[in-house]
Design a protein that fits this description.
This protein is α+β, with helices and mostly antiparallel strands. It is 33% helix and 29% strand. The chain starts with 6 loop residues before the first helix and ends in a 6-residue tail after the last strand.
Length: 274
Amino acid sequence: MSPAPDREQVRLLALHDELIRGAVELEDAADVVQIGPLWLGRFGGHGLVTYRDLDGARGPDLIDLIAAAKAHFGALGMGFEWKTRGHDDRASELDVALRAAGFDAEPAETVMVGEPAMLIGRASVLPDGVVLRQAGAGEKSLADDVAAVGRLHAAVFEHHRDDYDQAVLAKLQQRPDRVKLWMVVNDAGGVLCAGRLDLTAPVAGLWGGATDPAWRGRGLYRALTAARCLEAAQRGCTVVYAECTEFSRPILERSGLRAVTTTTPYVWSPTGRG
């Protein structure tokens, strides 16, 4: 049995539910539709379903909500992700209902929340021959840097979206004041570590953190995280959060973030078994 959350975890989880969940997650969506307590957003060729809570839906009502989401995105001819949180009421019932409706659960990630000041002063010293910078700030173009980060993601993550380069480049070009891509590169220009910073004051999101396996354990991701949090603090953000894998969680914990819950994406495709 997991230990009961302490007072600080309870406080940070409340901030997560208040500031991070729901419509705010869909601010960059091409269009947004609300069905009951659900928020449905379209991002390019895929969709996302999120919510603050399910407003007590269970049994037939829960099944109806799932069917409505499938019908919405099915009519658009696109697959989508139903984003769940482990601390929600009836999370196990939702798991059963989504699987029965043809969704596939991807690996769970840990949701980490904290304050920028917790991480700013904890940067590590980078090894010789590597540089920390923002994408587009070196000799190569922004598009070339994004493509290089995309290759790193494809090598590191099992579930890598084919439209990653296009989606990230569009974010950086359309919202340069709010979206930043940080990277650690070697002398040859190879990307060893990278991660995005999304700024929606008072919240800063740390997204897409990836490190070349050959370079793990050498302080790259920790330095990358500290740089992003410094920028977040300078831009007026008071809350930082990340959804992280087993590789980045220990680093973020050592940097000062706290684990408050988990998130599991359930994915459905109109051409799948559902």
